[in-house]
C-alpha cells in the first residue's frame, strides 16, 4: 500500500511538472513570461495594447503587393504616408513590420520575399521621417499566415502589417512611467484649439 501510494504521488508530481509554470501568461505578444510580468506591473503592457488598438483603428495597418514583387505601388505608398503621419505623433513608441506572401513558390523563397516586402515598407517609412531605431524588427512569415486559405495567387496574402510593439525605454517622457499620457494624447492638428479671441478692430464700439 505504501509503495502504491508513493508511486501515485510520484505520478502526480510528474504530471504537474509537465505543465510549464507561467506558460499561459506568455502569449508571445511582448516576449517571455518574465518580461510580460514586468510590463504588467509597470502598466506598460496595458497601455501598449491600447495604443496598438488605436493605431489599428485610426490608420490602415496593411499594404499589399503585386505577385512576386516587393515594389510599393501608389496605394501602398499612400497607406504608408498615413502610417508615418500617425507614428510621428508618438515619438516614444516602437513599431514592428511583418512581411507575408501567398503560397505560390517555395517556402524558402517566400520567406525571403516576405522579408524584402517588410524592408521596403521600413525603407519608405524612414524617408518620411521615421527613425529606423523605432522600427525595432523586420520579420517575415512568408506563406505561413495567409488571410485567404488558397494555394494559388492571392493579393490579400501578399502584404505587410505594421503594428505597435511597445515603448522606447529611455525616452525622456517615459522615464517616470507616464504611458497613459502618451496613449491619450490628441493628434497634433486637433491639439491646437480654435482661438476665441477677437481683434480690437472687430469688437463692437460699445465694448471698446
Descriptive notes:
With 208 residues, the protein is α+β, with helices and mostly antiparallel strands. It has a domain at 62-186: OmpA-like domain (60s Ribosomal Protein L30, Chain: A, 2-Layer Sandwich), CATH 3.30.1330.60. It is built from 6 helices and 4 strands, in the order H-H-H-E-H-E-H-E-E-H. The protein has helices at residues 2-17, 33-42, 44-58, 74-88, 107-127, 179-183, and strands spanning 62-64, 93-100, 135-142, 159-167. The chain has a 4-stranded mixed beta sheet with strand order 1-4-2-3. Helix 5 links the parallel strand 2 (93-100) and strand 3 (135-142). 23% of the residues are buried. The model is unreliable at 6-30, 32-42 and 196-208 (pLDDT under 50). One of its GO terms (cellular component) is cell outer membrane. InterPro entries: Bact_OuterMem_StrucFunc, OMP_bac, OmpA-like, OmpA-like_sf. Residues 52-168 form the OmpA-like domain. It comes from Parasedimentitalea maritima.
Write a concise synopsis of the structure shown.
It is found in: Cell outer membrane. With 208 residues, this protein is of the alpha+beta class. The protein has helices at 2-17, 33-42, 44-58, 74-88, 107-127, 179-183; strands at 62-64, 93-100, 135-142, 159-167.
Q: Which strand order spans the largest sheet, edge to edge or round the barrel?
A: 1-4-2-3
Mean pLDDT: 76
Number of strands: 4
- In the predicted model, the low-confidence regions spanning at least 5 consecutive residues are 6-30, 32-42, 196-208
Question: Can you count the helices?
Answer: 6
Write down the CATH topology of one domain.
60s Ribosomal Protein L30, Chain: A
Distance between the termini: 104 Å
- Beta percentage is 5-15%
CATH architecture classification of one domain: 2-Layer Sandwich
Class from secondary-structure proportions? alpha+beta
The proportion of residues forming helix, as a percent range, comes to 25-40%
* Rg of Cα set: 25 Å
Shape: elongated
- Helix and strand run: HHHEHEHEEH
The CATH superfamily title of one domain: OmpA-like domain
Amino acid at each position: 500500500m505504501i509503495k502504491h501510494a508513493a508511486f501515485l504521488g510520484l505520478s502526480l508530481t510528474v504530471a504537474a511538472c509537465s505543465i510549464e509554470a507561467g506558460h499561459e501568461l506568455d502569449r508571445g505578444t511582448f516576449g517571455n513570461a518574465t518580461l510580460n510580468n514586468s510590463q504588467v506591473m509597470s502598466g506598460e503592457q496595458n497601455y501598449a495594447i491600447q495604443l496598438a488598438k488605436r493605431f489599428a483603428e485610426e490608420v490602415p495597418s496593411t499594404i499589399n503587393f503585386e505577385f512576386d514583387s516587393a515594389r510599393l505601388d501608389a496605394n501602398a505608398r499612400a497607406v504608408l504616408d498615413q502610417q508615418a503621419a500617425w507614428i510621428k505623433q508618438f515619438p516614444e513608441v516602437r513599431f514592428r513590420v511583418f512581411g507575408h506572401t501567398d503560397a505560390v513558390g517555395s517556402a524558402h523563397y517566400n520567406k525571403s520575399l516576405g522579408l524584402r516586402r517588410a524592408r521596403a515598407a521600413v525603407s519608405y517609412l524612414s524617408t518620411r521621417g521615421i527613425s529606423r531605431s523605432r522600427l525595432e524588427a523586420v520579420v517575415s512569415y512568408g506563406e505561413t499566415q495567409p488571410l485567404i486559405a488558397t494555394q494559388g495567387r492571392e493579393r490579400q496574402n501578399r502584404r505587410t502589417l505594421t503594428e505597435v510593439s511597445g515603448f522606447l525605454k529611455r525616452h525622456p517622457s517615459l522615464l517616470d512611467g507616464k504611458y497613459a499620457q502618451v496613449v491619450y494624447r490628441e493628434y497634433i492638428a486637433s491639439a491646437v484649439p480654435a482661438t476665441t479671441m477677437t481683434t480690437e478692430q472687430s469688437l463692437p464700439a460699445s465694448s471698446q
